[in-house]
Specification:
Elements (H helix, E strand, L loop, with lengths): L1 H19 L53 E6 L5 H16 L3 E6 L6 H13 L4 E4 L8 H9 L4 E4 L10 E4 L2 H15 L4 E8 L4 H17 L3 E8 L4 H14 L5 E4 L2 H13 L7 E5 L3 H8 L5 E5 L1 H16 L7 E3 L2 E4 L23
Parallel strand pairs: 1-2, 1-3, 3-4, 4-5, 5-11, 6-7, 6-8, 8-9, 9-10
Antiparallel strand pairs: 10-12
Helix pairs in contact: 2-10, 3-4, 5-6, 7-8
Length: 367
């Protein structure tokens, strides 16, 4: 257990530095959590041009790799930050997939969700340098509209991945279904608590599509299916372990009985888990998270965290590049590509295919 505590303390310290610059058993997952299909914006199955993959089968290959183009394309990738392993895995997906398809990636990070001006400036710089396509993971839905429309007006296609922009001038959106993620949290929480209890919510970064969609879906599902599971308190934050620790400590001082903790990300969940562990509530408080970084896996193994919804972060990166190449080569691209989801508990850890989730050990994004 000390190894887990030390790891969380280290991660909290790391996030502080980087961001300054920038219960029960395991019930079956809800029916909504089945592996997602390639779908359009209306959630109907969309026809997809199935180009023949040029390599062996990979995790997340429901949207196959297209043939390698005759020319080298340059793709700008704009991320919120790289202090979260979620985005490191995504960066690996973009870069490794581009190499397989003979493309070149210019990787940029804003330094945090709060740095909208920097991300907008990065998009404008990519437009000025005349990249062939831009892959955008937005720090703000509304704040990135102008930059996306600037790129589209310049004839540069924008692929929106993971965190959504409010602009409708994108070629496609490659993402997890965040509403389904929220529903999976609610079903797991409601079933594990036996349909009754008190929970608190750590939504995540304010103004982001994932925080809003997951949190709203969680509350709506609870109201519909588990009306006796009550939300006592809820907070937004910049999604760091330090935020999760601080907010969970505040919740425990404010509310006498907390049976469950919803987390829109696993970064806050790891901080919240540390607070719960320090208070001696391990095993008596259900903690759900989203994503699957190393500390989250360790917390699940040790029984501190209860469950996490796994996103295929590497797959998001791969599909983003594939969609960009398909569009540039004149192929039809679905309006939305939903990557698969999985509810992970201690009992199913051995079934997780890490190729779709994390960068290889030791891999680091280029500076």
């Amino acid at each position: 257990m000390s190894r887990h505590l030390n790891g969380i303390h280290w991660l909290i310290g790391l996030c502080m530095v980087l961001m300054s610059g920038c219960g029960g058993g395991s019930p079956p997952p809800p029916e909504d959590s089945a592996p997602a299909q390639v779908r359009d914006a209306s959630n109907g199955v969309a026809p997809v041009e199935r180009a023949q993959p040029d390599t062996e089968s990979e995790a997340g290959d429901e949207y196959p790799r297209p043939p390698k183009p005759a020319r080298q394309y340059t793709i700008g990738v704009v991320l919120p930050h790289l202090s979260n392993p979620h985005f490191v895995g995504q960066a690996y997906g973009y870069i490794d997939e581009a190499e397989k398809l003979g493309a070149q990636v210019t990787l940029l990070e804003a330094g945090g969700y709060q740095y909208l001006d920097k991300q907008v400036s990065q998009i404008e710089d990519l437009v000025a340098s005349k990249v062939d396509a831009i892959i955008l993971v937005a720090v703000s839905g509304s704040g990135t509209v102008g930059a996306v429309e600037h790129a589209a007006a310049a004839g540069i296609p924008v692929i929106n991945c993971n965190v959504m922009t409010d602009s409708n001038r994108v070629v496609t959106r490659v993402r997890s279904d965040d509403e389904v993620i929220g529903q999976m949290h609610a079903d797991f929480m409601g079933q594990t608590l036996g349909g009754s209890g008190n929970v608190v919510m750590l939504w995540g970064a304010p103004g982001t599509s994932w925080a809003e969609d997951r949190g709203n879906a969680f509350k709506q599902r609870l109201a519909e299916r588990y009306p006796n599971v009550k939300v006592l308190g809820e907070q937004y934050s910049q999604s760091t372990p330090a935020d999760g620790l601080r907010l969970m400590e505040d919740f425990m001082q404010t509310f006498q009985q907390i049976d469950g903790v919803y987390n829109g990300s696993d970064t806050t969940a790891n901080g919240a888990a540390l607070a719960i562990l320090a208070a001696g509530h391990q095993g008596s408080t259900v903690i759900t998270a989203t994503d699957f970084q190393v500390d989250t896996e360790e917390s699940l193994r040790e029984g501190v965290m209860t469950a996490t919804v796994l996103q295929q972060t590497v797959t998001i990166g791969r599909w983003g590049v594939r969609a960009a190449i398909n569009h540039l080569e004149g192929r039809q691209v679905p309006q939305t590509l939903y990557t698969p989801l999985m509810m992970v508990t201690k009992d199913v850890l051995a079934t997780v295919d890490m190729r779709a989730v994390r960068a290889p050990v030791g891999w680091m994004p280029p500076t």
